[in-house]
Amino acid sequence: MPWAVLYITLVLLGLLGMSGTLVTTVKNLSLWSPVGAVMTVLSAGMNNLSNWSSQDTYSLLCCLGYAAVFTIIGVRWFRWTAQ
Q1: Segments making up each domain of the chain, as ranges
Q2: Judging by beta carbons within 10 Å of its beta carbon (0-12, 13-18, 19+), is residue 5 exposed, middle or buried?
Q3: 71 has a pLDDT exceeding 80
Q4: Cβ neighbours of residue 20 closer than 8 Å, sequence gap 6 or more
Q5: Shortest CA distance to 63 belongs to which of 35, 83, 43?
Q6: DSSP 44
Q7: pTM
């Protein structure tokens, strides 16, 4: 359950940070949250791929890292029955 709270916090950080309502430091931090990384990759994929930058590559790697980490966490603590 604490992992769900962490993930929800990261999602909210990404949503609020990308909207520009928070300070610049938090906005820069939100670019590397799950939502920020996905938004960067989707934006880069929808634009001309000749404009692909290293920032887009790092965001793609960040998304893959988040997927791997949260998959491992989910598989490790998955239970069919509630405790």
Answers
A1: 2-76
A2: exposed
A3: yes
A4: 27
A5: 35
A6: H
A7: 0.72
